[in-house]
Design brief:
This protein is mainly β. It contains 9 helices and 63 strands. The strands form 16 sheets. A 9-stranded antiparallel beta sheet has the order 49-50-51-52-63-59-58-55-56, with helices on one face. Helix 2 crosses helix 3.
């Protein structure tokens, strides 16, 4: 067997050859999916089984081409139960002799038997997501070869472990998926440090040690290495217990929060006869977590609203094996969405993820595994203590969770308060427990109503379930408005962060979401941003900007609400930009900064922008707000010119040519300035448009959607130089009217006055036919670049957008965003670029939605909750559009924005009809 020897120093430790006082690490594996070491490997069943080969460690063996892929919902008889046999040769430094040596596994799926030089290191470890260790001091040989053997069983011999971890709504894997290393400690050493650093500067610590020492020295340092406060020492009396309580008061520490993640390094040193024996350092944050019954959760004395998401430890090409680089990327994306919290679903994460939450600032709910099923009490007790020992000192952790959705072994509850020196609150997700109401996926009306009349602190640990393009952004504005305004609400957590699509090595590298089980993310498997990403970013902005219209009387002021917990708005940056559009680029602009207003957390105030005197000659105003780190919270856009002003500039009505009309039995045939048009005399519909290049395949419209095409009594007459073809209004038979105006320039105006056919409508508007295969791209002025739904209107920006055709479906390969098909809001004009011909459509009306074809309808659940319905036809111009549901809720139960559109006018009074006015340029120029 080829020998491999790799030595790494842990990020929190270092060698000290003079004093040998700190813990030393010898990595036997790599440190993550971006740094691995090959071990010898034998898989007992499935792909590439029955032979010795090699495998990178850490990894999940399925992703390396071994064994069998399984989703947690697979039937028991179809689940892979293969085992992996590992071997690795290593050397132990000779100067490690006379030290305590542990072998540490940070995560192995799932039953793991370990041998060193042919001898058992200890009892089989059962449970996948927990750091476990064996004392191998008497098993290793110093300065010569050692053999590590590990047998990992994907399916546990303990059925409760399978119930808690492997019968679940996520992918299940096998293998040693987190790092493995040796730790060398002096015989007298610190075993455990439990730290409670309060916001008032009190440091309470319980330190457990082994061996003989006469004092403990404690020192704190700031992030730049400067000593903070006084170094203090506690003497140890002979014969006293091996657990020391250390208390000290520090003055005015910089507090830790998601907004200001201030960290200190606490260094603990065991001393014997003046000699430093062992030293241990921990990153700590001063902060206080308090739950007030029937009130809320307070961090550092401030009542919190948690804007959170659930996050799996996952990467498509490596399964549950991740890296610190991935942890940083995940946290940065959450922070970019203005989130302040993350829930670990549904097991403890890699240690480096918690390190990043500490350093970048995210509140964490750490969770003992249990998805509907539970560990038995002896196993759960052992695993819970392993989780606590590894994670307890992270300031980012403000909650513990005992299982998920019924996976709560209540016999373990008492252990959390007994083991946690900080006494952080314990949650039972999807349960009323401990003063918290965390029920998942409450329908808006029932849920919010129940919340409004309840008494518990409200914090659903999953409240909108994404799937494909539904959920997350769709519905969040309604839910968040209710949560923000309810004094009992502590916010909540979305399901979930990223699409769980795994690389199938048995299917030529296909990304597999197991149908509709895995595409639940706000971002794609490789962090591709969906439309909901930007909706959440705007809705959860800690600075709320009140809507303003850019009227002539606008004085440059914006009303703001500070939704930060600890940040004054004078710590933020406010930038503005005026843009004057030109097709294809942003052309001219003016920009500047505004003075940041002094607005305290949870208060309202005013921002004043000193705009130039010519500001109304621009097309749009943009306001960008950045936090105290210089990161953008959001950019709000405000149209200045209205559609009617654009239409007046773009539409040409005059010309030198005459409008010529010819009638036959069926049609009006009209020519003007090289444009030939055919209208059906009975229905009034446009049948054909043609220019010098040929026919433009845009026709068969307008067809009313959720309205009756009862246009009747058409007449054609000249009105000066223009031709008007119009229907006759009749209150009983033809209450919807259509009028065409053809100008000498060749431009065509369409005006429809209509009444929806129902009181409740999914959508209303006008449809036309256009062959999808002919579409090449569009360029339009309006909100973009992402599409919208009725219950997901936020997150877009006003501008001119060019979009090439694609057939992307959200949550499916190739995860190409933004999608092309769908609804787009606030259309001013659109140029449709076909493979053969192009044409323009302009409106002078506000709030027109452009609809481009019908997106693919992905497989829904058996309840068909998402219901992403679209109008008939191919291209539509809508007065109202449809909403989209979630995996667990139909659109109308996600809040008022998800309900159908409501219209009421039984009298068919023309003055109360809906109106759609469009102008068409078929010249192709």
């Amino acid at each position: 067997m080829k020998r491999r020897f790799i030595l790494f120093l842990g990020l929190m430790t270092m060698f000290c050859f003079v004093k040998a006082q700190q813990t030393e690490k010898l990595y036997l594996s790599g440190t993550g999916n971006d740094n691995t070491v090959n071990w010898d490997f034998f898989c007992t069943a499935g792909a590439n089984s029955g032979k010795w080969t090699t495998i990178p460690v850490p990894s999940n063996w399925e992703l390396q081409g071994f064994g069998k892929y399984n989703y947690g919902f697979n039937k028991e008889e179809n689940k892979g139960k293969e085992q992996g046999l590992y071997k690795f040769n290593f050397k132990v430094p000779a100067d490690w002799k006379n030290r305590k040596i542990d072998i540490v596994f940070e995560g192995s799926m799932t039953d793991t038997e370990v041998k060193i030089n042919g001898k058992s290191a200890g009892e089989t470890h059962q449970g996948s997501f927990y750091v476990f260790r064996y004392d191998v001091s008497k098993l290793v040989k110093f300065g010569s070869d050692n053999l590590l053997e590990a047998k990992v069983s994907k399916h546990s011999a303990n059925q409760s472990v399978n119930e808690a971890e492997r019968k679940a709504d996520f992918w299940i894997f096998g293998g040693i998926f987190r790092p493995v290393y040796l730790e060398a400690l002096p015989q007298t050493h610190i075993e455990r440090v439990q730290i409670d650093a309060k916001a008032n500067g009190t440091l309470n610590t319980a330190l457990t040690y082994t061996g003989d020492a006469d004092k403990v020295e404690v020192e704190l340092a700031t992030q730049d290495g400067k000593r903070f406060g006084d170094k203090f020492t506690v003497s140890i009396k002979k014969g006293s217990p091996k657990k020391i309580v250390l208390n000290h008061q520090f003055s005015n520490p910089e507090l830790w929060s998601s907004e200001f993640p201030n960290l200190y390094t606490a260094t603990f040193t065991l001393i014997k006869n003046g000699k430093e024996i062992h030293q241990l350092s921990k990153k700590i944050g001063f902060r206080t977590v308090e739950v007030k019954e029937r009130d809320g959760v307070y961090i550092n004395g401030v009542k919190m609203k948690f804007k959170g998401v659930n996050r799996h430890s996952f990467y498509p090409s490596s399964g549950r094996t991740t890296s610190k680089k991935i942890s940083i990327a995940d946290v940065l994306l959450m922070k970019e969405m203005n989130m302040n919290a993350v829930r670990m679903s549904h097991y403890p994460p890699d240690g480096h993820f918690l390190d990043v939450c500490d350093s970048l600032g995210l509140f964490v709910m750490d969770e003992l595994a249990g998805w509907h099923g539970t560990y038995d009490t002896p196993t759960g007790t052992k695993l819970m203590k392993e989780m606590m020992l590894n994670d307890e000192n992270h300031p980012s952790i403000v909650f513990w969770a005992n299982g998920n959705e019924g996976g709560h072994n209540r016999e373990l509850d008492h252990l959390f308060s007994e083991e946690d020196i900080q006494k952080r609150p314990l949650i039972h997700p999807w349960e009323v427990f401990g003063g918290f109401e965390t029920t998942h996926y409450r329908e808006f009306n029932y849920g919010i109503g129940n919340y409004d009349h309840g008494h518990n602190v409200l914090m659903p640990t999953e409240f909108l379930h994404g799937m494909w393009d539904g959920g997350h952004g769709a519905g969040i504005e309604d839910y968040w408005n209710a949560m923000w305004n309810n004094p009992l609400s502590a916010g909540g957590f979305l399901w979930d962060f990223a699409d769980q699509a795994v690389v199938r090595t048995d299917k030529n590298g296909e990304l597999d979401t197991d149908g509709n089980h895995g595409p639940d993310g706000i971002v794609g498997p490789y962090h591709e941003k969906e439309g909901s990403f930007y909706t959440i970013k705007e809705v959860w902005s800690p600075v709320f900007v009140e809507k303003r219209e850019m009227t002539a009387g606008f004085d440059g002021s914006f009303l703001l609400e500070n939704r930060y917990a600890f940040t004054n708005l004078n710590q933020c940056t406010f930038e503005w930009k005026l843009k004057r559009f030109k097709t294809g680029d942003d052309a001219e602009f003016k920009a500047g900064k505004a003075d940041a207003p002094n607005v305290k957390p949870f208060e309202k105030g005013k921002l004043q922008i000193n705009l130039p005197t010519d500001w109304r000659t621009f097309d749009a105003l943009y306001l960008t707000i950045k936090d105290h780190f210089g990161k953008e919270l959001f950019t709000w856009s405000f149209p200045i010119a209205l559609p009617k002003e654009d239409a007046a500039k773009m539409v040409t009505t005059t010309g030198t040519s005459k409008v010529i009309v010819k009638e036959d039995a069926k049609n009006y045939r009209v020519s003007a300035n090289g444009i030939d048009l055919i209208f059906d005399k009975t229905t009034g519909l446009l049948q054909q448009a043609k220019n010098a290049k040929g026919i433009i395949p845009f026709s068969n419209g307008p067809i009313l959607q959720e309205g009756v095409n009862n246009f009747k009594g058409f007449t054609a007459k000249m009105d000066g130089e223009k031709l008007i073809i119009s229907s006759k209004f009749d209150k009983k038979e033809s209450w919807n009217t259509l009028q065409w105006t053809i100008y000498p320039s060749g431009w065509l105006k369409m005006e429809v006055n209509y009444f929806p056919s129902d009181y409740f409508t999914t959508f209303v508007g006008l449809n036309f036919s256009y062959p999808e295969a002919e579409m090449k791209s569009v360029q339009y002025k309006g909100n973009g670049p992402y599409r919208v739904w009725k219950n997901r209107m936020k997150g877009t920006e006003f501008g001119i957008w060019k979009k090439d055709y694609n057939n992307s479906a959200t949550g499916e390969a190739p995860w190409q965003y933004p999608e092309f098909k769908g609804y787009y809001s606030n259309m001013y004009w659109c140029e449709f670029v076909g493979k053969q011909q192009s044409f323009k459509v302009v409106t002078d009306r506000e709030d027109v939605f452009l609809r481009l074809f019908t997106p693919k309808k992905s497989k829904d659940t058996e309840y068909d909750n998402m219901s992403p319905t679209f109008p008939d036809g191919d291209i539509s111009f809508m007065n109202a559009i449809s909403a989209i549901g979630t995996k667990t809720q139909k659109p109308e139960t996600t809040g008022p924005m998800g309900m159908k559109n409501i219209y009421y006018d039984f009298d068919k009074a023309p003055s109360r009809a809906l109106n759609m006015t469009l102008y068409f340029d078929f010249s192709g120029t």
